[in-house]
Write a structure and sequence with these properties.
The structure holds two protein chains of two kinds. Chain A is of the alpha/beta class. Chain A is built from four helices and four strands. Chain A has helices at residues 17-26, 48-56, 78-95, 113-130, and strands spanning 8-13, 35-40, 61-66, 103-107. Chain A has a four-stranded parallel β-sheet, sandwiched between helices. The model of chain B is unreliable at 1-12 (pLDDT under 50). Chain B is globular and about 90 Å long. By secondary structure, chain B is of the alpha/beta class. In chain B, the strands form twelve sheets. Chain B has a five-stranded parallel β-sheet. In chain B, 29% of the residues lie in helices and 24% in strands. Chain B has five domains: 15-149, Rossmann fold (3-Layer(aba) Sandwich), CATH 3.40.50; 153-245 and 329-342 and 508-580, 3-Layer(bba) Sandwich (FAD/NAD(P)-binding domain), CATH 3.50.50; 250-326, Alpha-Beta Plaits; 344-504, FAD/NAD(P)-binding domain (3-Layer(bba) Sandwich); 585-640, Alpha-Beta Plaits (2-Layer Sandwich). The chains are: A alpha/beta, B alpha/beta. FE2/S2 (inorganic) cluster binds at residues 13, 15-16, 42-44, 66-67, 73-75, 78-79 of chain A.
Chain lengths: 137, 659
């Protein structure tokens, strides 16, 4: 069997984390190709159902990427709403048998290309350590 | 005939015909993503009818290729696998529009910034990831819905906040183009920091001589409403129609009557530190801010006034009423806003090693005031400790700039203004010894390098190296630190030390940013949306920034930005109407349980419960964040262009067949 390569999906806001990923790319900061992004206007758009569905469909790691707390959200408060939901969902998924560390929320701004690549690298490492999504096995 | 047409239309609605276009971006993408593989892979995905590649998809040729496919191949959705939608989406949307396809039936997949660039070392994985992302885009495209831009009327008026040189330029340009301008300044007079300067680099012309005429023009322009001694209290509304509440602080002087004679100041017994002269002399509790103030009106400093009412009696036009205490609130609507609130200076007390407590250690702005003929020393350079002329002056650069402990950034202009000071002093006092201690000299602007060379020729001594300590020895100061060129420690005995203090974001900038809902960067300056392409736009539509509130800047740049912001605001307002993205929330009445969860979540108060027992989204207020949609327990709220279905298709694409 080939080495386990986690499938990681990030729901990121258009204004900060998506732009941070653009900057990581244009500055050639590399990070694992396991990371795949879904762009939304704000981290506050992330419906808890999206995250549950992503895990249910076998993703090994999921993250939400938004603008820094407290003031950077383009829509003022969306990041706080996302934070609350992720905190709640971590509890919920652990009850479902999914390690809560498989879900994270990161604040990465448009100017933090380097940080984007660092955070993505360490998150991928962590998921790799955790192994495949237990729902899959 | 009509029948077949409608049938054809229906068909295209039911089964999307997706055109997929993969861009090489020269070698930017093709260098590390195997384009051929991505093309072949895409052909086998459901609903895809055409797949093509192009060297530069955003070129006219590339765009025409897409347009042709819409016409000839009946493509009804377009997926472009290329660069970032944040920079290029608009171009493609315009092409769809001109091909008569609704521009929201477009999806852009960023295989450059997210695949070929970050994974450039790993062609296989970059290619595999590109395939998955393209699939995610195609899946999403199948669920895209046509949307109509919203039309919004735009008032032809602008609020300019901050009456420094950048705000003055913005206000004048807009007023000259016929717009109504409200210019709000928190000090009694406009003019900003430039009003405190003596001469200005790179031409050494007198600051007041070039600034004063513009200030006068502001007061003489009928469509500029000048609100000084005022601050923004509250902002609501949206692009096209912002509702503004201004707090006009109480002056106790009726400005309609006041003629600026200054008699009141003469009789006032209370002496107060004079901020305009950097507290180096005194003003009265009732005062006119400075000689060329616009408006030339007196203000009673309510915190310092002892209510003796001597001024009331003295005023010949009866303008003063000390009993007036209440601030006044003024409300109006504007179509756009420009923030030009400038900067403040770093507090040198934060660098204890520079002994700012010592009377003969001063800041550059204090020196600037001394050099000014109308300043506290009438243009003479005198040691504050004893009023004697200094023989040796040391300038210390980068105080609070390029310093990990205080501010990381470079304040850009301190090198050139210290050179200015040194040159002007050398011209006036040729026998004076002048040292400039610098880390790097950054004289970047047009004519600045030549300006620096003249200072050298005049005998100013430039010493490279950081100063670590200033100690007093008797009535003189020992300046010690490094001389990097000689590689040794140096010490200069000076009579006066001038600290070139950093430019920082102006006090209250954060509060204003919150009121305007615009971002600041980590140093507290207002953040532009794109440093190169959109330097004066912010992330709030219709709100622009200019001058030193965006970052340290000299006058030429502050003026250019003021003019740029005026032009950006003007192109927004000129038609009286704009089209904006229809990314608002829509509530399906049948599904809504009237729980009112959404109402309390919306930061913009865009959702209201109506008299008819309905939840209604005010699309002029809704910004389309989607917070409500994510929270609605009944799934009744659709976030346009980011619907549950669209997002779920992407989840499906990115998880399908990957186990
Ligand atoms: C010592 C020194 C020497 C300099 N010499 C030169 C020189 O020779 N040549 C040169 O090109 N540049 C020089 N500069 C730089 C120059 O001062 C700036 O480039 C220029 O003042 C920037 O203009 P501005 O309009 O952006 O900001 P400012 O001049 O700071 O004006 C901002 C205005 O906004 C007002 N304001 C702030 N906050 C609010 C608020 N919340 N509400 C309402 N109003 C508000 C302020 O009161 C002020 O009037 C020098 C600077 C210093 C410190
Ligand atoms: S949250 Fe959903 S169900 Fe509740 S009032 Fe709003 S739209 Fe209706
Ligand atoms: S999308 Fe955001 S702004 Fe619009 S109604 Fe919902 S919560 Fe309010
Ligand atoms: S826009 Fe980035 S978190 Fe809201």
């Amino acid at each position: 069997m080939s080495k386990f390569e986690p499938n990681i999906i990030g729901f990121v806001c258009n204004w900060c984390t998506y732009a941070g990923a653009d900057l990581a790319g244009s500055s050639r900061y590399s990070y694992p190709p396991n990371i795949k992004l879904i762009r939304l206007m704000c981290s506050g758009r992330v419906d808890p159902a999206f995250i549950l569905e992503t895990f249910a469909r076998g993703a090994d790691g999921v993250f939400v990427g938004g603008c820094h707390i407290p003031t950077d959200c383009h829509y003022q408060q969306g990041n706080f709403k996302a934070l609350k939901r992720v905190t709640m969902l971590k509890k919920l998924i652990s009850e479902m048998g999914i390690e809560p560390e498989r879900l994270e929320i990161f604040w990465i701004s448009a100017s933090e290309g380097k940080r984007f690549s660092e955070v993505m690298t360490s998150f991928t490492d962590k998921i790799r350590e955790l192994g495949p999504n237990p729902l899959k096995v | 005939m009509a029948k077949t047409q409608s049938k054809k239309k229906k068909q295209s609605d039911e089964v999307p015909r997706i055109g997929v276009y993969v861009c090489h971006c020269g070698t930017n993408i093709a260098g590390s993503v195997n384009i051929g593989e991505v093309v072949e892979f895409s052909k086998n995905i459901k609903n895809v009818s055409v797949v093509r590649e192009h060297m530069y998809l955003c070129s006219e040729q590339g765009q025409n290729m897409i347009k042709d496919d819409i016409k000839k191949e009946g493509v009804t959705r377009v997926v472009a696998a290329c660069c970032s939608p944040r920079t290029h989406e608009e171009i493609f949307r315009k092409t769809l529009n001109s091909g008569n396809l609704n521009k929201y039936l477009y999806e852009q997949v960023n295989i450059r910034d997210q695949c070929s660039w970050p994974h450039f070392k790993d062609k296989d994985n970059a290619t595999n990831k590109a395939k998955q992302l393209v699939k995610s885009g195609i899946y999403r495209a199948s669920e895209l819905e046509p949307l109509q831009d919203r039309k919004l009327s735009v008032l032809k008026s602008c609020l300019v906040i901050g009456g420094g040189i950048s705000g003055i330029n913005a206000a004048l340009d807009l007023a000259r183009s016929g717009y109504h301008v409200y210019l709000v300044e928190r000090n009694p007079s406009i003019g900003g920091k430039m009003a405190q300067l003596d001469k200005t680099f790179p031409t050494n012309d007198c600051s007041a001589c070039i600034l004063a005429p513009m200030m006068v023009e502001v007061s003489n322009t009928s469509n500029i409403e000048l609100l000084t001694y005022s601050e923004i209290e509250y902002v609501s509304g949206h692009i096209g129609k912002y509702h503004i509440t201004v707090r006009k602080k109480q002056t106790s002087v009726d400005w309609e009557k006041c003629n600026g004679c200054g008699d009141c100041s003469i009789v006032c017994p209370v002496k107060v530190d004079n901020e305009f002269n950097c507290n180096m002399d005194k003003r009265k509790a009732v005062y006119i801010q400075f000689q060329q103030a616009i408006p030339m009106k007196a203000v009673v400093d309510k915190k310092k006034c002892v209510k003796c009412k001597l001024c009331e009696k003295r005023c010949q036009v009866g303008a003063i009423d000390i009993s007036k205490n209440e601030d006044e609130f003024i409300e109006f609507d504007v179509g756009s806003i420009i923030a030009t609130t400038g900067y403040d200076l770093f507090d040198p007390n934060k660098k204890a090693e520079y002994d700012y407590d010592h009377p003969n250690v001063i800041t550059s702005l204090e020196l600037e005031r001394m050099m000014c003929a109308s300043g506290p020393t009438k243009g003479e350079i005198l040691r504050p400790s004893d009023g004697r002329k200094p023989h040796t002056i040391s300038f210390i650069q980068c105080v609070g700039s390029r310093d990990e402990k205080t501010n990381d950034y470079c304040s850009r202009i301190c090198c050139t203004y210290s050179i200015k000071h040194a040159r002007l002093l050398k011209e006036k006092y040729p026998d004076m010894d002048i040292y400039i201690h610098y880390i790097d000299l950054r004289c970047f602007g047009k004519g600045y390098e030549e300006y620096y060379r003249i200072a050298r020729e005049k005998g100013v001594k430039f010493i490279r190296g950081r100063i670590s300590q200033i100690d007093s020895i008797g009535d003189r100061l020992e300046v010690s630190g490094d001389d990097d060129t000689l590689g040794e420690q140096i010490s200069v005995i000076a009579d006066l030390v001038v600290l070139a203090v950093a430019m920082e974001s102006s006090k209250g900038a954060k509060k204003l940013a919150n009121l305007l809902n615009i971002s600041t960067d980590k140093t507290g300056f207002f953040k532009e949306i794109h440093p190169k392409l959109k330097p004066v736009s912010t992330d709030s539509d219709g709100i622009f920034i200019a001058g030193a509130c965006q970052g340290p800047k000299e006058i030429p740049d502050a003026v250019s930005q003021g003019k740029a912001a005026a032009s950006a605001a003007s192109s927004l307002m000129s038609k009286g109407e704009i089209e904006i993205e229809p990314l608002f929330a829509q509530i399906t009445e049948d599904l809504c349980a009237k729980c009112r969860t959404c109402e309390s979540l919306c930061t913009y108060k865009a959702i209201k419960y109506t008299d008819e027992d309905k939840m209604e989204v005010d699309i002029a207020l809704c910004k389309g964040c989607g917070v409500c949609s994510a929270a609605c327990p009944s799934g009744a709220i659709k976030a346009n262009h980011f619907t549950n279905k669209q997002v779920r298709m992407q989840i499906l694409a990115l998880t399908e067949g990957i186990h």
